[in-house]
Design brief:
By secondary structure, the chain is mainly alpha-helical. It has one domain: Cytochrome c-like domain (Cytochrome Bc1 Complex, Chain D, domain 2). It is 34% helix and 0% strand. It is built from 4 helices and no strands. The longest helix has 13 residues. The protein is globular. It starts with a helix and ends in a 12-residue tail after the last helix.
Length: 99
């Protein structure tokens, strides 16, 4: 299952940045938003495609001031955030989580 294109646009994902739900979607979403704070070149690469993150489908839809506020997350914090968010998953969707 892939994220619908309309949802991708609202999050700032380009069509090339779609994720399959089975392959660490939460991790990919966090990495996407973390790219705005990250200074490491590897954080500018979409792990799903191996290419740089695409531009938003509609210019001017991102609040770059807010996205760039704060420090970038390291791998340990990203993993902790993903683990926390997975605890919020409704029982009917637990089968989609990678164990």
């Amino acid at each position: 299952m892939r994220i619908p294109k309309a949802l991708n646009g609202s999050l700032g994902f380009g069509a090339q940045d779609c994720f399959d739900l089975g392959e660490s979607r939460l991790n990919g979403v966090i990495l996407f938003y973390n790219k705005y704070n990250a200074t490491i070149a590897s954080r500018q690469i979409n792990p799903e495609t191996g290419q740089t993150w695409g531009a938003p489908e509609v210019d001017g839809t991102l609040s770059l001031t807010e996205l760039r506020a704060g420090r970038a997350l390291d791998d340990k914090r990203i993993d902790a955030l993903v683990a926390f968010l997975e605890t919020l998953t409704d029982r009917r969707y637990e089968h989609l989580l990678k164990r």
